């Protein structure tokens, strides 16, 4: 699943021969340095990582329009600060996958641990399994699509962007949320402070349809989701709301 224009096209599989890096034979630092040394992204556009074996910080700081296929599960902070690259993890990801990513895409074929997409400023993070607690915490423009469920305190202090959940959401969804949009198809165990259920208008249906298309999800309809967001009562301190802070 790869894309060169995530704003307009779904992710798709490329056909060219990859540059292969085996982490059982080279160090992670050597691989990450090779990513930073790219001179011609068009000529080095497909990369493959073998034997990650839960390594931490795989493909951190990737900044070129290349596709990186990681053949196995990874540890914490995979794809952190990603710009432009499309990173596919053919396994599960530890804490902080896609933390502070700026653009591009990260696709996790399995599950993701806690605070996936934390502080993300842009790009698309797709988790095809479940995401643990604090998914999308303090998100600042990132789009996150989770096929499964998400854990408690997800979208805590979420400022902007979209969080799409095809499954269920845990306790305290959207606690102290700002202007991010939350779309949940399943049940929500509880809402956090200042997070409320909101009307799903045509413009939200359009946003959701676009995100589902870009994530390659065709088996659900946008109309099946509920929207949640900020009640905007905690923007400024008010003594009447003291118990909610």
UniProtKB/TrEMBL annotation:
InterPro entries: Glu_synth_asu_C, Glu_synth_asu_C_sf, Glu_synth_lsu_3. Pfam families: GXGXG. Coiled coil: none annotated. SUPFAM superfamilies: Alpha subunit of glutamate synthase, C-terminal domain. CDD domains: GXGXG. Residues 63-197 form the Glutamate synthase alpha subunit C-terminal domain. GO terms for molecular function: oxidoreductase activity. This is Glutamate synthase domain-containing protein 3. It comes from Aminobacter carboxidus.
């Amino acid at each position: 699943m790869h894309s060169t224009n995530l704003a307009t096209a779904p992710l798709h599989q490329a056909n060219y021969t990859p540059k292969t890096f085996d982490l059982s034979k080279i160090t992670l630092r050597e691989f990450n340095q090779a990513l930073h040394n790219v001179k011609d992204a068009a000529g080095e556009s497909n990369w493959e990582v073998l034997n990650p074996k839960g390594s931490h910080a795989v493909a951190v700081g990737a900044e070129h329009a290349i596709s990186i296929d990681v053949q196995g599960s990874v540890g914490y902070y995979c794809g952190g600060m990603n710009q432009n690259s499309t990173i596919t993890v053919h396994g599960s990801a530890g804490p902080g996958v896609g933390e502070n990513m700026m653009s591009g895409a990260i696709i996790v074929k399995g599950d993701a641990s806690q605070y996936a997409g934390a502080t993300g400023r842009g790009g698309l993070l797709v988790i095809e399994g479940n995401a643990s607690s604090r998914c999308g915490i303090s998100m600042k423009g990132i789009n996150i699509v989770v096929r499964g469920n998400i854990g408690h305190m997800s979208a805590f202090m979420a400022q902007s962007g979209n969080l799409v959940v095809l499954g269920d959401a845990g306790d305290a969804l959207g606690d102290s949320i700002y202007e991010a949009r939350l779309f949940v198809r399943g049940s929500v165990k509880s809402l956090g402070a200042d997070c409320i259920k909101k009307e799903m208008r045509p413009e939200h249906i359009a946003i959701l349809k676009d995100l589902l298309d870009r994530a390659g999800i065709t088996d659900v309809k946008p109309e099946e989701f509920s929207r949640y967001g900020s009640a905007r009562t905690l923007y400024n301190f008010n003594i009447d709301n003291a118990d909610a802070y």
